[in-house]
Amino acid sequence: xxxLPHGLWEHLHPEERPLARRLADLAGRARNRGEWTLxxxxxxxxxxxxxxxxxxxxxxxxxxxxxxxxxxxxxxxVPSEALPWVADDPETFDxxxxxxxxxxxxxxxxxxxxxxxxxxxxxxxxxxGDIRLGPGRAEIVTTxxxxxxxxxxxxxxxxxxxxARPGDWQDRLPAAAPEREVRTISVASLRLDAVLAxxxxxxxxxxxxxxxxxxxxxxHRPERAPDRPLQAGDRLSVRGFGRVEVVxxxxxxxxxxxxxxxxxxxxxx
Length: 269
What we know:
- By secondary structure, the chain is of the alpha+beta class.
- Helix content is 26%, strand content 31%.
- The chain starts with 5 loop residues before the first helix and ends with a strand.
- This is RNA-binding S4 domain-containing protein.
C-alpha cells in the first residue's frame, strides 16, 4: 500500500477514502515499478479522486470510456513521463462493447432496465461503463473480458426481450446531445435542499431526506448537509433523478424568494 500525504486525507470526503486507498495502490505501482495499471470504471467524482491521488504520488493518469464525452471511464495510471504516449482507444483501456437489439413493436427498455438486467447477471457496477440508447438498439461499454458473458446472458431488459452480441467499435450509435430541460424556479433560499426541491419538483422534506441519505453529490463530491449554500455554476447529481445545474442566479423577486435558472439532465421527469 502506498501512503498518501496526510493533507490529502483531510481533503477527501470520508466516503471517498476507501476508493483513494485502492487507487493509491495502482498509482504507486505505476510510479515505483513503471507498470500501466487500469482502474475500474469511474464516474466524474471518482475521477477527481484519481487525479488527486495521481498528483500526490507523482504518477500520470488518463481517462477513456469509449467516446470523448463518456460519463463513466476507466483510468490508466502510468509513469508521468509516459503520459504523452497514452492513446485514447479501446485496446489501450481494455474496453469491450456489447450491442443490444430489440423489436420496437414491443416497446423499448430504458437505461435503468438495461443496467438492472446486466447487474442481475452478477456483474458489479464498476465493471460497466456508459449505456447509450438509440432506436431499437443500445450499446453497453464494459471490459473486454466481460463482453462474451453479457452477450450470452442478456436476454431481457425490463419486460422487453433483447438480443445481445459483441459490438463493433466501427458501428457506434451516433453521438446525441443529452436531453436538457431549462426553466426558472423560485426558492426560499440557496440551501441545497431548497434548490433540489424546486429543481426536481419535490417537497422540501423529500429533498432533505435525499441529501441526508447520501444520494446527492455537489460538483461530483458527496454532500450530506441540506443547508449547504449553492451558487451559479454548481452541478448536482441525484441518484435516481439525474443531474441538475444551477445556471444563473437572477436575484430576489418582490416576495424575497430567490429566482434561479436551472437545467436538468436525465433521470425521471
